[in-house]
Amino acid sequence: MLKKLLQRTDCLLNERQRYQFFATVLINLISIAHGIGVGWLSPILRKLQSADSPLEFSLSIAEISWVGSALGMGAVTGNIFMGVALNRIGARLGLLFIAIPHSVSISIKFKALKHFSARPQCLWILVYFAQSMEYLFVGRFLAGISSGGMYIVHPIFLSEISDAKVRGTFGSMVMLSVNIGILLGYILGTHLAYHVIPLVVLIFPLSYFISTLFFIRDSPMHLIRKRKFAAAEQSFRYYKNIKDIASSAMLEFEHMKHTLTSAAKQLDKPTLQDFFTKAALKAYGIAFVLLIVNQFSGLFAMVNYMSDIFAASGSTLNPDNCTIFIGVVQILGTYGTTLLCDIWGRKILLVVSSAGVVFSLSALGLFTYFAARYDLSDWSWLPLLCMSLYIFLGNIGLIGCFFVVLVELFPVKIRAQAASIAIVICSCFVFVMLNILPLCMANWGLPATMWSCAAITAFGFVFFVCCLNETKGKSMLED
Questions:
Q1: What does the alpha-carbon distance between residue 172 and residue 338 come to, in Å, rounded to a whole number?
Q2: PROSITE patterns given for it (predicted)?
Q3: How far is 231 from 220, CA to CA, in rounded Å?
Q4: What are the residues whose beta carbons fall under 8 Å from the beta carbon of 196, sequence distance 6 or more?
């Protein structure tokens, strides 16, 4: 029975796809590490604002907004570097690079770190030895560099090694892994001592670096562009698990080789004209709306401040326990994407997701509005329900499908460059949203903040229904 299951074409562990799945799992170890860094902030910020701060200082609202948004600033740096370097250095070196800001050089001893002369590898050492807000800011900035590079190289690499029928599943596993990390971050930040957490987290980037070094190869498409045809064939055989020398599946490789080499110069160096074709301009418009809705729906920013949101919602439930529950819901949402993305398609998931976000944010805003005026303690479970719906439905489409759709939108000749630019813009939006969300909640109140995010998402819902084309099954060699 197991043998029959493994022979099914939709099984991720079948003979053709098992090494693609293996590579996806390995490179997403860094996604888990990134998620821990995101989730860890939520319960820790509440502690750092209190008189029982684990450090020798506490943070103001303004300082919280800067520590939170430092991730976005670092992500822009990582985006730009990886966007410029990826076509030159290849995915394998790119994947190895993004481990550096998240790792610790073995030669650095903890006691040696006293000031800001610490090397970039010291993300979690900076957190460990934080003596002021600036240490946390720099630590988050370095985490952003790693995540910025990750969000460039992961979607492009996975799209180039995956079969079309499972590309959506593998691409959505990036956000599934991030959300697993976020849940771990919530749990670690709530139940472990502040200075223990960095020592636990370091396991993931170090394991990722070693795994990538020994088990990950450059994609065959990249190697063909570099005219390393023998290496490209080996890579193709590896990721498609082809052992027969004269396998009929190698016709697919020959087609890929012919397509890429017949226009290799244009693919390596697209002209300015290529960025202004009708297909490219249409893709820009769709991508821009996708970016706006992805970030200004608040789905990522609120994850960073989840404990503060529950504390301000009017619910009497424990904010940290609610946050951990939301972390579980978030995983279920992105897991749903991995199951449905290549069955239902991208468009329907985005439509359902945006509609669900509008409904749940509107309901949460109404509850917090009336909770400030009336005694709604008997309804304390309602914010948890609304936030659970918001996170679950948001992750099914707007989060889980985001990078999959973004890569598939652009014409092949400008795909890497256009996707890189789009993700840089996304990181700028991350910085803006992380910076302004705590200020909006403090100055506008939680209801107005929720309703503003719902209004933006409602626009996205209408746009997706009217203007978004399905990209499921699209070949990565076509526009």
A1: 6
A2: MFS (PS50850), SUGAR_TRANSPORT_2 (PS00217)
A3: 8
A4: none
Query: Per-domain residue ranges for the chain?
Result: 10-216+270-467
Domain 10-216+270-467 has CATH 1.20.1250.20: yes
Q: What is the pLDDT of residue 114?
A: 38
Backbone angles phi, psi at 328, to 5 degrees: -65, -45
Integer Cα distance of 227 and 260 in angstroms? 10
Residue 285 has pLDDT above 80, yes or no: yes
Q: What angle do CA 309, 312, 317 make, to 5 degrees?
A: 85
Average pLDDT, the chain: 81
Dihedral sign computed on CA atoms, order 164, 165, 168, 171: negative
Instruction: Say what angle helices 278-296 and 402-409 make with each other, to 10 degrees.
Output: 160
Contact 434, 71 (CB under 8 A): yes
Q: What is the model's pTM?
A: 0.76
pLDDT exceeds cutoff 70 at 194: no
**What does the pLDDT look like over 79-121, one tens digit per residue?**
888 888 887 888 889 999 888 776 543 223 233 333 333 333 4
